[in-house]
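Q: Protein A?
A:
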Amino acid sequence: MTSPPSPPVRSAERSAPRSGVPDSAARPTGRLSELPARVALVVVWSSGFLSGLLGLRYAAPYTFAALRFALAGLVLLAVAAIRRQRPPRGRRLLHLAVAGVLVQAVQFSSIYQGMNLGVPSGLAALIIALYPLTASLLAVPFLHERVSAGQLLGLVLGLGGVALAVAEGVQLSADRLPGLGFLVLGLLGISLGTVYQKRFCGEMEPVSGNAVQLLAAALVVLVPALLVEGWDVHFTAAYWPVLLWSALVNSVVGVGLLYRLLRRHGTSQVSSLFQLVPMSTAGLGALLLGQRPGPLTLGGLALAMTGTLLAHRVRR
């Protein structure tokens, strides 16, 4: 069993008095240095909803997920071989596989299945945006993290902004209940998976470790892809860019950014970034698909950003 490494910011704080740099000067630099990674995580994760929606035009949900995970995993496996990295073994291999199945297979195949059953991408993003609350609550008993009242307030404000932003045009009906059930399953997958990742896979090597997780996820979703869907996919010229984006950008880059931030910060702070994903998804939809956000979306964006900033200002 491995334990998560100590965040670099703390070690910087311990060494600050010896170098003559006050703590107050060291902390803002650390936050600013992580800003590009945080922005990239939000944008890349948001694009996954659009690439998934486009991918479902050419492949059934589990088949699309299996192709995405297998392609990304094989690419990372090749990179690890070129770098001559030793593959994980024993208990570490098992922990990586479990985390990969939860974060990748359960989450994304459930999102695809939910959208395939008629749940709009905005509503799907809203449900997954509950992840900050569920992951923070799970981190208390399993990771012994503290969630202050101010941080909870920031999370709730962000969630309220998410709900306001996607309220326009969202209509619930009984025929969408199965799809909503899959989205809830996806929410549980990413919540449990990131907590499990931080608890047992904190020292994961990014390339070989992510390759193991993606290939484990591919094997799991391959079963329903073959037995239930009959490997339903249509390889066309328009499908390949969507598959490559979802595999290389969403799976490799997106999950890599998520794990990098989890190693450096608390689960509650990192997960609060996901409250910006629905608004970012709406923005990308407006840019790429011509969907214009209305006043409720803009108001929700402001409220969610306020809540997210509040959650990140809380010192752990």
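Q: Protein B?
A:
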Amino acid sequence: MPSEVGEGSDSLEDITPSHPTRQPRRRHRDPQQRPHRVTVRYNAAEYEEIRRAAADRSQTIARFCATSTLNDARGLSAGDPQDRLDRAIDELAGSRTQLARVGNNLNQITFVLNASGFHHPAELGAALELVQQAVARVDATAAELVGR
């Protein structure tokens, strides 16, 4: 039986997001219910291709189809602006995680040096300062993206 793709026809459980902590996003709600519905039919291969593309973007199939068709109708080829923003924030979150790991390693090195009776080498202080500056830049960039 062919699947119908409509405003609520796909379920969130069927989508595996590319970013494990991000749930698939639905389109923003309008103050009033959208009165027009379009029914589209796909063969199994086409449907699977659309499902994968929606999952890669952490979107429901309905949102993916709606934003794709609206972007095409509007002459936009760059994709959903919210999708690009979400991907940028995910990248910044990943960068912050990596910086936290570097900071953790620096703390472990400092602990071992202190336990052995050595003083802090100047390089550790400089490395810590660089990590703190990088974290501050990542945080400022994320705040700027979210605050727009």
